[in-house]
Write a structure and sequence with these properties.
Elements lengths: L11 H5 L16 H14 L2 E10 L5 E10 L14 E8 L6 E6 L2 E3 L5 E3 L2 E5 L5 H14 L1 H17 L5 H13 L5 H12 L13 H12 L8 H19 L7
Antiparallel strand pairs: 1-2, 2-3, 3-4, 4-7, 5-6
Helix pairs in contact: 2-3, 4-7, 5-6, 6-7, 7-8
C-alpha cells in the first residue's frame, strides 16, 4: 500500500546513514531525521502501538525529509483489529535547512507529499527547528502520540457506527453519494466510480456489513484514490474532509478532531 504521494526512495536503514549538517547560524540546530523517527517509534511503543508499514523520501540534497507510517494497536479494548476494519496513519516531515518545519500529522487519512501538502484528519503539530529543538521535539512528539489511544478508540467507535448504519435500500445510498457530490466531496467522474463501487464493491471486505455507511465510506475512498502524474492533492484532501463530515453527520457521531 502506498503511503506517500510520491516515489518513496529511502528505507529505514538508509535513513540512519544520512549525515546531519552543521548549524546554519546561532539559532539553528539540525536534528537528525533518524532520531526524529526513533522518537516517534519509541513514543508509539509506550502507548501500545506498533509500526506495520512505513515509507520515507529524502530530497536529493538530503535537506528535506517526508515519511508516513501505518500503525496499529497491539491490543485495544480487548480486541485485535485487522487492516480491513482499522487503520491509522502518522505523517512526518522536516528539513535541515529550515525550509520545512518539523511536523507530525495523525489520521485515518493522511496526506504527505514533497509539494508540502501535509494534513491529517485527527491531529497536527509543527515546530520550528531552532536552538533547543533537541529538547522540545521529543516532548512534543510524546505529548502528541499520547493522545493516540483515546483518538483511536473514538475512531473505532465511529467506524462501528458506520458499520451498523444500514441504508433502507440501494437508492438511499445513491442519494447519499449524490449529496456528497453536491457538497464538493466528489467530482462527476468520481461520483460515477463511487456508485459503481457501491453497486459492486471491488473488495469483499468492504461489503461485510451490507449496504451500510461503511460500504459508502469505502466506495468514496476508492473513488478518491489518486491516479496519474498530475494529481491535485489539495483537492483530494478537501474532498476527503467533505465526505468524512457528511458521513459523521449521517450516522450521528461527531467528526474526529484534535
Amino acid at each position: 500500500m502506498a503511503l506517500l504521494y510520491s516515489q518513496a526512495n529511502t528505507n529505514r536503514a538508509q535513513l540512519a546513514l544520512i549525515s546531519t549538517p552543521k548549524p546554519m547560524g546561532p539559532r539553528h540546530r539540525p536534528y537528525a531525521f533518524d532520531s526524529y523517527v526513533n522518537n516517534v517509534e519509541e513514543s508509539l511503543d509506550r502507548v501500545g502501538f506498533e509500526v506495520v508499514n512505513q515509507e520515507y523520501e529524502v530530497s536529493p540534497d538530503h535537506n528535506r525529509f517526508f515519511g508516513a507510517m501505518e500503525i496499529a494497536p497491539r491490543v485495544l479494548s480487548g480486541e485485535v483489529y485487522t487492516e480491513a476494519e482499522y487503520k491509522l496513519l502518522v505523517g512526518l516531515r522536516g528539513s535541515h535547512d529550515q525550509t520545512v518545519p518539523r511536523g507530525l500529522v495523525l489520521g485515518s487519512q493522511v496526506t504527505v507529499c514533497s509539494n508540502l501538502l501535509f494534513s491529517g484528519n485527527i491531529a497536527t503539530f509543527t515546530t520550528k527547528q531552532t536552538t533547543f529543538i533537541h529538547r522540545r521535539l521529543p516532548a512534543l512528539i510524546s505529548e502528541s502520540i499520547g493522545h493516540i489511544p483515546a483518538l483511536a478508540q473514538a475512531q473505532h467507535e465511529k467506524f462501528e457506527a458506520y458499520q451498523q448504519y444500514e441504508f433502507k435500500n440501494v437508492r438511499a445510498g445513491d442519494a447519499a453519494l449524490v449529496e456528497i457530490f453536491r457538497q464538493g466531496g466528489l467530482s462527476a467522474a468520481q461520483l460515477g466510480k463511487a456508485v459503481r463501487e457501491w453497486d459492486q464493491p471491488s473488495f469483499e471486505e468492504h461489503a461485510r456489513f451490507g449496504k451500510s455507511a461503511w460500504l459508502l465510506l469505502q466506495s468514496v475512498t476508492q473513488a478518491l484514490k489518486p491516479g496519474g502524474q498530475n494529481v491535485n492533492h489539495h483537492i483530494i484532501a478537501n474532498r476527503t474532509e467533505v465526505a468524512d463530515r457528511f458521513l459523521s453527520n449521517l450516522v450521528g457521531v461527531d467528526k474526529l478532531a484534535a
